[in-house]
């Protein structure tokens, strides 16, 4: 999607490694933003769902405890997924030549 931008970076002297790093860092950034939004929504939605299920199935009052260790574990999982999912696009972007990227339409 950003072929021209990569072409301009390569034209001004960006190395293959720097283009690859740029794409992977952007993948990690997107993953972290998704994690923050998911973490913000997980507390209220977890409490609501557990309340409904426990009251419906067990007919008792629920006790809800938020797992901060689970939140940190998901942070690690999300970062790993962000890195892995951006490696192939990073490699493709790094292998493009300046001519290929600037001729792209």
Structure description:
- The protein is mainly alpha-helical and 105 residues long.
- It is 81% helix and 0% strand.
- The chain is built from 4 helices and no strands.
- It has helices spanning 3-11, 16-58, 68-95, 98-102.
- Helix 2 runs antiparallel to helix 3 (68-95).
- It is rod-shaped, with a radius of gyration of 21 Å.
- The N and C termini lie close together (10 Å).
Rg value: 21 Å
Overall average pLDDT: 85
Q: Please tell me what the overall shape is.
A: rod-shaped
**Major β-sheet profile:** none
- Uncertain segments of ≥5 residues (pLDDT<50)? none
Percent of residues in β-strands = under 5%
Order of helices and strands: HHHH
Main structural class: mainly alpha
Q: What separation lies between the terminal Cα atoms?
A: 10 Å
Task: Give the total of beta strands.
Answer: 0
Number of separate helices: 4
Helix content: over 70%
Give a summary of the structure in a few sentences:
The protein is mainly alpha-helical and 105 residues long. The protein is built from four helices and no strands.
Which tags fit this structure?
single chain, 105 residues, mainly alpha, 4 helices, rod-shaped
Topology:
Layout: H1 3-11, H2 16-58, H3 68-95, H4 98-102
